[in-house]
Amino acid sequence: MQAKPLWEETRELHHACERHAVGGAMATGKPPAIWYAAWLVALNQIHSIVDPHMPGILNRTDRLIEDINIMQYELPKLEAAKVYTLTLTDEKKIAGAAYVLTGAHLMGGEIMRRRLEGFPTKHLEWDDRKEAIAILQQYRTRDDIGEEAKDCFKALLTIMDEIERLYTVSL
Question: pTM for the full model?
Fold first, then answer.
C-alpha cells in the first residue's frame, strides 16, 4: 500500500493551524502586533536550527531578524519553540520541518505577504521563487517524513497556544 502524499497526510494538522486563533488572525492579515512579533521570534528559533541544513535559497533567518527588528518588540524566546528545536536531531526531522516551513512561506506566504499590510514580511520574499518551489517539490515527494512533518505542525500549534496564553488580546 502506497503512503498518502505528504500534503494529504498533514492536511488535518495544517487546517488546525489555520483555525487556531493565532493562525486565523494571521490569515486575516490583521493579527495583533504582539502575536505577529512573537510568531516571528518562534519562526526564527526554528529556522536557526533548520536553515543550516537546507539549500541557502530557503534560509529565512536573516530575513526573520530584519522583520523582528522592524517590529521593535523585545520578546523572549518561546518555550514551545525551544522544546521543538531540541527534537530536530536528524535529517528526517529537519526535512519534515523544512517541508512545513518552506511550504508555508512559499505558498501561503505569497498570499499573506499581500494581506499583512503594515507588517514586515521580508521572510516571505524570495530571490528566486521558482528555484525555491523546485526545492520544495523535492520535500513534497518524500514518503519518509510524514510523521516528522506532522510533528512540526503539532509544534506550531503548541507555539500558537503559548502565544495566545502569554499575550492576551481582545479580537
Answer: 0.95
SS3 per-residue string spanning the chain: CCCCCHHHHCHHHHHHHHHCHHHHHHHHCCCCHHHHHHHHHHHHHHHHHHHHHCCHHHCCHHHHHHHHHHHCCCCCCCHHHHHHHCCCCCHHHHHHHHHHHHHHHHHHHHHHHHHCCCCCCHHHCCCCHHHHHHHHHHHHCCCCCHHHHHHHHHHHHHHHHHHHHHCCCCC
| Structural domains for the chain | 6-166 (1.20.910.10)
What are the pLDDT digits (tens) for 46-99?
Answer: 999 999 999 999 999 999 999 999 999 999 999 999 999 999 999 999 999 999
d(CA 12, CA 19): 10
